[in-house]
Amino acid sequence: MKVENLFSVDKKTVLITGGSRGIGEMIASGFCANGAKVYITARSGNVVKETAKNLSEKYNCKCIGIESDISSIEGIKSLSNMVKNEENSLDVLINNAGAAWGAPVENFPEVGWDKVMDLCVKSMFFLTQNMLPLLKEAANNQNPSRIINIGSIDGINKPEFNNYSYSAAKAAVHHMTRVLAAELVEKNILVNAIAPGPFPSKMLGSAVEFDYSELESKNPRGRIGTPEDIAGLAIFLASRAGSFTIGEVITCDGGLVASAGHDLS
Ligand SMILES: NC(=O)c1ccc[n+]([C@@H]2O[C@H](COP(=O)([O-])OP(=O)(O)OC[C@H]3O[C@@H](n4cnc5c(N)ncnc54)[C@H](OP(=O)(O)O)[C@@H]3O)[C@@H](O)[C@H]2O)c1
Hints:
Blueprint (H helix, E strand, L loop, with lengths): L2 H4 L6 E5 L4 H11 L4 E6 L2 H15 L3 E5 L5 H14 L5 E4 L14 H29 L6 E6 L13 H21 L4 E8 L5 H6 L5 H6 L8 H12 L10 E4 L13
Parallel strand pairs: 1-2, 1-4, 2-3, 4-5, 5-6, 6-7
Helix pairs in contact: 2-3, 2-9, 4-5, 5-6
The chain binds NADP nicotinamide-adenine-dinucleotide phosphate.
NADP nicotinamide-adenine-dinucleotide phosphate binds next to helix 2, strand 2 and helix 7.
């Protein structure tokens, strides 16, 4: 019952897509600080390798950066093969890489639909499919392996921005999480999703010109998310403490979904 046992991720092997910056880097920091071996991926090889080097030095851990574009099946297979060449098993897969597209409904382009749906939904499914052999290898009844999908409160609430494909994709991520959870629990693979609210990142920052003050003032907690908020929840889901929690979509949003429909002005 000690916290260090209940919430331990020590020596777990973790793969985080899109771990070079933003929410993926925040989650990677939490695992790196607590003894896990962490693989992070991104399309920009220089950036992901630099982030891995910084995290390794900061937390005295093994963080490995892999250059990979998972928007295609070839990219997914190539990433899977790279991990399989290094590891015989995988304890935690965190499907975090995502993209958004904003445009008015009248001229929302097909490319903005396909790019977002493909990366957020199709790639998440097929990377999961490709990593199943390694996840199964790590899994047993006492120590189930975990999949954590990063959704969004935009897949629950009406979104703040005109991101039609993104909010639909994130709703799909949440339902895919429930469907896969029901299927994989019997194989000792536990699937859950986190639905973040606003966290500082390139994705959110570019939508608000990196001025988060309005989002902070609209949030019931009076702030946006921090690395501790998102890493803490991911660590819970990956640890002994989270091993009876399955198929959930857990918000991490300062109370935005809980207070939707209330007048916060
Ligand atoms: N920030 C928020 O407020 C917020 C809220 C709710 C949900 N989310 C979700 O959280 C996740 C992370 O978002 P973020 O805000 O941290 O975004 P971000 O700062 O833009 O980071 C996205 C990450 O994904 C990588 N990536 C993008 N396309 C990729 C591809 N085709 N293949 C491999 N990696 C790719 C990026 O690196 P490269 O560009 O080098 O590939 C980067 O590491 C996303 O699923 C997003 O929908 C974010």
